[in-house]
Design brief:
The chain is α+β, with helices and mostly antiparallel strands. It is built from 14 helices and seven strands. It has helices at residues 11-15, 57-67, 74-81, 85-93, 104-112, 119-133, 150-154, 158-166, 169-181, 195-203, 210-220, 231-242, 249-260, 264-289; strands at 2-4, 24-26, 29-34, 37-44, 47-53, 136-139, 142-145. The strands form two sheets. A five-stranded antiparallel beta sheet has the order 1-5-4-3-2. The chain has a two-stranded antiparallel ribbon with strand order 6-7. Strand 4 (37-44) and strand 5 form a beta hairpin. The longest helix has 26 residues, at 264-289. The termini are far apart. The protein binds a DNA duplex through helix 6, helix 8, helix 9, helix 11 and helix 12.
Length: 290
DNA sequence: AGCCAGGCCCTCC
DNA sequence: GGAGGGCCTGGC
């Protein structure tokens, strides 16, 4: 089935830039798991070609449009955040990289797993969580698993999570899953809350600090002003903007939100992805050159 | 081998 | 409230 696309779109940058952890690329196709379906996407000249199973494509199509936020006018976002030549260059490099609208629960657990880790490992951890505790999905000879529900994950327990290689994050995942099961926090309602209120609610969860909370707000809770300051973004802000001024991470976040405005989170993602890829390229060059 | 990874929590001041 | 250290593990 085809989804017509008139918006700028870079599927690789969107799906493989550390927003979501379940997408794989092969032969120009991106394979993932969404809405209890195995989903395959490809960008062609007319738009997005996609297949899904086991559900009907007509049922999944609007959900996919929502997930990719194809309604967001990216050029208007760029006009809002392009405050200087350096971020303009990062935007130009990854023009079409979109911020996803993910399921808040899956997003939350994924980013609890991300702390002091790296994307290849996070990807492996999340996939292990799914295959061990999620419902299997078989379709057309391929097999993936749904992301486990809060009940399924709360039932896992810390020790079994630790055996998946989560390290000390296992306790955070178990605790947060239990909090959600207990009904102490309803993630879905956070979309209607203000940025500040939703931030406070998330930070109360075990294993969730300012950075992780801002990731969840940005990638799943309709808060485009969220600005997660991770190690890469911290470096970039220091290199490009702060000119030797030492700021604590929350102050750095606030500074960036003031500078980049209501779509600061988009600026964040371009700064992050640009620096992360630049590092990868330069290390590859070092190896081949020595 | 050793450093770093999309940080968080706890302690101490 | 802010700085500093510890932390599981694996990728490179």
């Amino acid at each position: 089935m085809l989804i017509p696309v008139s918006q700028p779109l870079d599927l690789a940058a969107t799906l493989l830039s550390g927003q979501a952890f379940r997408w794989r690329e092969s032969d120009g196709w991106f394979d993932g798991v969404l809405f209890d379906n195995i989903v395959r996407l490809r960008h062609d000249t007319d738009g997005i070609e996609f297949t899904c199973a086991p559900d009907d494509e007509r049922a999944i199509q609007p959900l996919l449009v929502d997930y990719l936020r194809l309604d967001v006018d990216l050029d208007a976002v760029y006009a809002s955040i392009a405050t200087d030549p350096r971020i303009e260059a990062a935007i130009a490099r990854f023009r079409g990289m979109r911020i996803l609208r993910q399921d808040p629960w899956e997003c939350l657990i994924g980013f609890i797993c991300s702390s002091n880790s790296n994307i290849p490992r996070i990807t492996k951890n999340v996939e292990s969580i799914c295959t061990t505790f999620g419902r299997p999905i078989e379709a057309n000879g391929s097999s993936r698993s749904a992301f486990p529900t809060p009940v399924e994950l709360a039932g896992a327990g810390e020790s079994r999570l630790r055996r998946l290689g989560l390290g000390y994050r296992a306790g955070f995942v178990a605790s947060t899953a239990q909090t959600i099961v207990d009904g102490a926090l309803d993630l879905a309602t956070l979309r209607e809350d203000s940025y500040e209120d939703a931030l406070d609610a998330l930070i109360a969860l075990d294993g969730v600090g300012d950075k992780v909370a801002n990731c969840v707000l940005l990638f799943s809770l309709d808060k485009p002003e969220a600005f997660p300051v991770d190690t890469h973004v911290e470096q970039r802000l220091n290199e490009w903007y702060l000119d030797g001024t030492k700021l604590s991470l929350p102050k750095m976040r606030h500074w960036a939100q003031e500078r980049f405005g209501p779509f600061a989170g988009y600026a964040n993602q371009y700064l992050f992805h640009d620096r992360r890829l630049r590092l990868k390229v330069s290390t590859t060059d070092d190896r081949s050159g020595s």
